[in-house]
């Protein structure tokens, strides 16, 4: 089926689904419906009800479908990414948050449950998805976020300002020196892709900013290692660190944290797909750290 004049909404969505499937879009039916709803703004439930009748296809729908078929990310077309309970503004220059990162946020929320006013830092916030979700879901939390890219920082500022997050433009390696030794939780989803590993998905390879993907060095571990070092600098003794990573990097990151002598209770966590998605650790007190380093 193809697009045609005077086409019904149902037929247009069916045609769009076929076009997107042929283009290799991973979720063609869902994307076809979301593009239609972007124009109609009625919600997916109402949209699907309208498709049972003779509602007409919205004007401009074919053009949006053509953009998505060219593998422009859906979120760049709609300008919105949904993450946990938030609707985030996104576009060129910022990493689009992924559903698997929602489980990393949950680890933080579970850890600070019962704490009156936890101080939490998000290193490499991107769109602000992690920091914003924590601020939204943990009443009383003092949340700080760091972003290096001016483009991503601009998107994060738009998303985080209404949530009261303190956002700084800076390098996760040395930002927030004024908070050294005072933070309860540090969370990070740093770039971690190796320099020569080009992502398979065109949406990622062509549209996510390189500075949000590649972690530095042949193994991609420069920035994750730096994030761990900054976490050790920022946290109070007994403070909690959790970092997202690729499934294949779990063992390496746990070993890296162990070698540093700064961490105890190192644990790997699986996402909803069963993949080893994050590693957490607790900062040892100074006496233990000195003993481990032979001082």
From TrEMBL:
Residues 11-79 form the Release factor glutamine methyltransferase N-terminal domain. GO terms for biological process: methylation. Substrate binds at residues 189-192. The keyword Transferase applies. It is an enzyme of class 2 (transferase). SUPFAM superfamilies: S-adenosyl-L-methionine-dependent methyltransferases (SSF53335). GO terms for molecular function: nucleic acid binding; peptide chain release factor N(5)-glutamine methyltransferase activity. Keywords: Methyltransferase, S-adenosyl-L-methionine, Transferase. The keyword Methyltransferase applies. Residues 92-193 form the Methyltransferase small domain. Belongs to the protein N5-glutamine methyltransferase family. PrmC subfamily. NCBIfam families: hemK_fam (TIGR00536), RF_mod_PrmC (TIGR03534). Methylates the class 1 translation termination release factors RF1/PrfA and RF2/PrfB on the glutamine residue of the universally conserved GGQ motif. This is Release factor glutamine methyltransferase. The lineage of its organism: Bacteria, Bacillati, Actinomycetota, Actinomycetes, Micrococcales.
């Amino acid at each position: 089926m193809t697009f045609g004049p005077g086409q019904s909404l149902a037929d247009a969505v069916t045609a769009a689904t076929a076009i997107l499937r042929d283009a290799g879009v991973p979720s063609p039916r869902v994307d076809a419906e979301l593009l239609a709803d972007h124009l109609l703004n009625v919600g997916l439930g109402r949209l699907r009800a309208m498709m049972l009748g003779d509602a007409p296809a919205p004007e401009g729908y074919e053009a949006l479908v053509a953009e998505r078929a060219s593998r422009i990310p859906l979120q760049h077309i709609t300008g919105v990414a949904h993450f946990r309970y938030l609707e985030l503004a996104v576009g060129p220059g910022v990493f689009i948050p992924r559903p698997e990162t929602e489980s990393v946020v949950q680890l933080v929320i579970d850890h600070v449950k019962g704490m009156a006013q936890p101080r939490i830092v998000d290193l490499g916030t991107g769109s602000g998805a992690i920091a914003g979700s924590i601020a939204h879901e943990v009443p009383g939390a003092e949340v700080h976020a760091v972003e290096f890219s001016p483009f991503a920082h601009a998107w994060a500022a738009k998303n985080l300002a209404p949530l009261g997050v303190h956002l700084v433009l800076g390098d996760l390696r040395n930002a927030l020196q004024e908070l050294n030794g005072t933070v309860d939780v540090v969370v990070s989803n740093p770039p971690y892709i190796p320099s020569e590993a080009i992502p398979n998905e065109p949406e990622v390879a062509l549209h996510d900013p390189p500075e949000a993907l590649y972690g530095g060095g042949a193994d991609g571990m420069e920035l994750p290692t730096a994030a761990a070092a900054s976490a050790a600098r920022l946290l109070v003794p007994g403070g909690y660190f959790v970092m997202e990573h690729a499934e294949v990097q779990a063992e390496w990151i746990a070993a890296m944290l162990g070698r540093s002598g700064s961490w105890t209770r190192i644990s790997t966590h699986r996402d909803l797909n069963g993949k080893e998605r994050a590693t957490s650790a607790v900062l040892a007190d100074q006496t233990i750290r000195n003993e481990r380093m032979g001082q």
